[in-house]
Design brief:
mainly alpha, 35 helices, globular, heme
Length: 832
């Protein structure tokens, strides 16, 4: 008879566990046989089902025991033979045995119940790993208990901590499997569903009154149903993931059903398992969707109505998108007749919108606010005190339009300011990843010249897509070192970035798998990327090569056909010519929307990279795009027309929550109050107080270009220097990825940089010394600070407070404090 001492017991546990692993396939096969034998009775052998369902109960023991053991071990770090040692030993034993039992029961549960997919695999193997670690832990504990082996004690403690972490990870994935991947984050207020019932836009009463549905009505009805499926069900029930053997993304699979049979019974919603499941409470095990989100009453009513109507799904419906797709062709809406005192086309369209929304026009902003706004928006600079005085005194009725034209004629200041926007969008920079190793190419010379010369936008795009040496950096992308996933090869980068920046669409999802947020398919993304490739790309799905060679075609075949046998240069020339043709209304809607957003703070379509979304005024968007074409694709003329409009000159609107800007219920009332960009703030300090950046910090010098007239503003513009701590804190991106807009909300990092940053502090210190030499008297300095930074004289209470700090003959430190205090005022920081 074998004596069951500690070592033999450990050996026995290990043998039992590995036997369980070794025969797990046989257990599953046996379970399958039992299931097959019981199929006619539609039941599972009760004992296996009972044992499997004990898994959620059993799994809590190793979780609690092992984590508690690890916490107690931390208490005994100074004394391994602490009085808590017997308790820790008992907890480790209980946790290890519990882990083994939980794994056995979990294997049964996975086979019997409706679980599957990668999440199950991760949970299963982290659980098995935890059990193995637990056995290893018992071995270590047996060798260290009562001994003075310091090294062994350290190994045991590390193993215990690792085991506690492992059981926590396994528990997390188990919870994700049961409650959904977002079971923690879905409760947060900002994680609202992207699709809501108001997007259904369908009148079921009207459908009911029609009796027999025409094919057109059937297509419309099933289109709305498929939209609900796409936004709520495809993540688990499409070709990318098939849970419970059920797919809802095509007609054939939807009616075929899943492992439990058909889920749709045409003509009888009450007996359809799909309807039963979507009506279950969100915490019910069989509820659909299973990610913790429930369908709205309207969505449930829609699906039920569709099924009761016989679940019509005409073959023609397969050609109808379940996502909104914006029209590709240009559209020329008829301009309404002028009314009131409005004579600008933009204002006539906005007036029509205001009437629909029952919004009244407000008085335009005063001259001071207008002048500062157009200076910052058009040039990124601020007016001088003399310019404020001259403009306010100017009595000409068209002085605002004349000033806009005057600023747009300052070619170099204009180009330097807009260089920031296009550097972000085209991920062009002066230093950074790839430049030294020739894995990335700068396009700054070409970009600056194009902006300064106001190159027509169609030519601008053509030279980006079919580039020469100076403009090739955008589509060449970044050649990352080492292995990169398939969606980040340079050809796919080009497809994604051209899609995002030039066409306002998201191909990032579709470059890995069929998109969950649009109708774009993996094959379409690869076919578009193939245009940028010297050789034929091989399609990879989720970074796994499929062996299929990609086709070669433009995203919208109605724009033209790419010759798949042509070389890369020929394909790029074809692409450039096809995309810029007037028939591609999307291209021009995208750019006018971007310019509108830069000047107004919120696009007609939002986000500006998703042009399939509904604009708040389709007519205004379409008119701007076609007028842009009529004006010869002139960006300055587009900016001019927006800037002289009454809509642009409305008082700026405060937004309490930035999420409202992306909300479907957004209502336009005027430009949104914005925070200055990193470059605008830095240039404001340099212009008004003291230069922040030196000549040595300038990474790009426009004066080296052969131009007839140069800007002479007396300091180095922030747009021309490399990214640094100050600019980064204030929002400049690293430009390794495309960024078409920046967050306008203040952050803690910005507050810390503005209050404690070395670069700003040194600038204000040097500026204070210069101002002391120039002005000397405290009252003069106070007035000048307010006039220079805020464009006005201080109010009496402001003057009194400032003088109390400065005194009649202030020291530089006091002047520096005044600079700092005024710079942090919203009146300086924000664009009103």
């Amino acid at each position: 008879m074998i004596k069951m001492n500690k070592d033999n017991l450990l050996l026995f546990c290990g043998i039992v566990f590995f036997l369980v692993l070794g025969v797990s396939n046989e257990v599953q096969a046996f379970g399958t046989v039992l299931l097959f034998q019981a199929e006619e009775a539609e039941t599972t052998f009760w004992l296996w089902q009972l044992f499997g369902r004990l898994h959620p109960l059993a799994v809590h023991f190793p979780v609690s025991f092992l984590i508690l053991a690890a916490l107690l071990e931390l208490i005994t770090l100074k004394d391994f033979n602490h009085k808590l040692r017997p308790g820790i030993t008992a907890l480790v034993w209980a946790g290890a045995v519990g882990a083994i039992v939980a794994v056995i029961l979990g294997l049964l549960l996975a086979n019997i119940e409706d679980y599957g997919g990668s999440m199950l695999d991760i949970h299963q193997w982290t659980g098995i790993g935890t059990a193995l670690l637990s056995i290893f832990l018992l071995v270590l504990m047996g060798k260290t208990t009562g001994s003075q082996n310091a090294k062994g004690v350290k190994v045991f403690r590390v193993a215990l901590i690792v085991t506690a972490v492992a059981v926590s990870v396994a528990g997390h994935f188990g919870a994700s499997l049961t409650h959904g991947e977002e079971y923690l984050t879905e409760t947060l207020p900002w994680n609202e569903p992207e699709f809501s019932s108001k997007d259904l836009d369908i009148d079921l009463v009207a459908f009911e009154s029609e009796g027999e549905l025409s094919e057109q009505k059937q297509v419309e009805l099933v289109g709305k149903v498929r939209a609900v499926f796409a936004h709520n069900c495809y993540k688990c029930h499409s070709d990318a993931k098939i849970k419970g053997e059920l797919r809802l993304d095509t007609k054939e699979f939807a009616f075929e059903g899943g492992e439990s049979g058909p889920v749709i019974i045409p003509g009888n919603a009450g007996k359809s398992d799909l309807v039963r499941r979507i009506k279950l409470p969100k915490d019910h095990k069989e509820a659909m969707p299973s990610k913790g989100k429930v369908l709205s009453d309207d969505e449930i009513a829609l699906i039920s109505f569709w099924i009761d109507k016989g679940a019509p799904w005409p073959d023609a419906a397969e050609d109808v998108s379940v996502y909104r797709v914006a029209e590709l062709a240009p559209r020329r809406p008829n301009l309404p007749a002028p009314r009131k005192d409005l004579n600008q086309a933009i204002d006539i369209w906005v007036d029509e919108y205001f009437e629909e929304q029952e919004i009244d026009w407000r008085a335009p902003v005063d001259d001071k606010v207008f002048l500062r706004r157009i200076y910052l928006d058009l040039l990124g600079l601020q007016p001088s005190t003399e310019e404020y005085d001259t403009f306010i005194k100017d009595s000409r009725p068209d002085k605002r339009a004349l000033k806009v034209r005057e600023l747009l004629d300052r070619d170099d200041d204009y180009a330097t300011h807009w260089l920031t926007f296009w550097n972000d969008a085209l991920r062009n920079d002066y230093t950074g990843t790839g430049y030294i190793t020739k894995g990335r190419y700068a396009i700054t010379d070409w970009l600056y010249s194009s902006l300064r010369d106001n190159k027509p936008y169609d030519q601008f795009v053509k030279q980006l897509l079919n580039p020469d040496e100076k403009s090739k950096g955008f589509i060449e992308g970044i050649r990352w070192r080492g292995d990169v996933n398939a969606s980040q090869v340079t050809e796919m980068q080009a497809a994604q970035n051209v899609g995002q920046v030039i066409l306002g669409l998201n191909l990032k999802c579709a470059s890995c798998h069929d998109s969950f947020v649009s109708d774009w398919k993996l094959e379409e993304a690869y076919a578009f990327a193939n245009i940028f490739s010297d050789s034929s790309l091989v399609v990879s799905r989720c970074d796994i090569p499929t062996g299929e060679k990609a086709g070669t075609k433009i995203l919208w075949e109605e724009l033209g056909e790419i010759d798949s046998t042509a070389n890369r240069a020929e394909k790029l020339e074809q692409l450039a010519n096809y995309l810029v043709q007037p028939a591609n209304g999307r291209l021009y809607r995208t750019i006018v929307n971007r310019i509108w957003k830069q000047l107004m703070g919120r696009g007609l379509v939002e986000p500006a990279d998703e042009m399939d979304n509904i604009p708040w005024s389709q007519d205004l968007l379409d008119w701007l795009a076609t007028d842009f074409e009529d004006e010869g694709y002139d960006l300055k003329e587009l900016i001019y027309k927006i800037a002289i409009s009454k809509a642009y000159q409305q008082p700026a609107v405060a937004v309490e929550n930035p999420l409202f800007l992306a909300d479907d219920d957004f209502v336009f009332e005027g430009a949104v109050i914005r925070r200055m960009t990193a470059e605008q703030f830095s240039d404001g300090v340099s212009q008004k107080i003291h230069p922040i950046f030196s000549e040595e910090q300038m990474k790009y010098n426009p004066n080296e270009l052969a131009v007839s007239e140069q800007s002479d503003i007396g300091f180095v513009r922030a747009a021309l220097v490399a990214n640094n701590g100050l600019l980064k804190a204030l929002g400049r991106t690293n430009r390794e990825v495309v960024m078409t807009s920046r967050d306008s909300q203040a952050s803690l990092l910005q507050a810390l940089e503005l209050t404690n940053g070395e670069q700003l502090n040194n600038t204000l210190k040097e500026g204070a010394v210069k101002w002391k030499e120039k002005y000397e008297a405290g009252d003069i300095i106070v007035h000048e600070v307010y006039r220079q930074l805020l464009g006005r004289d201080p109010q009496q209470n402001e003057f009194n407070i400032a003088m109390a700090v400065l005194g009649e003959s202030p020291e530089p430190e006091a002047i520096q404090d005044l600079f700092w205090a005024v710079l942090l005022l919203p009146e300086f920081q924000l664009i009103y």
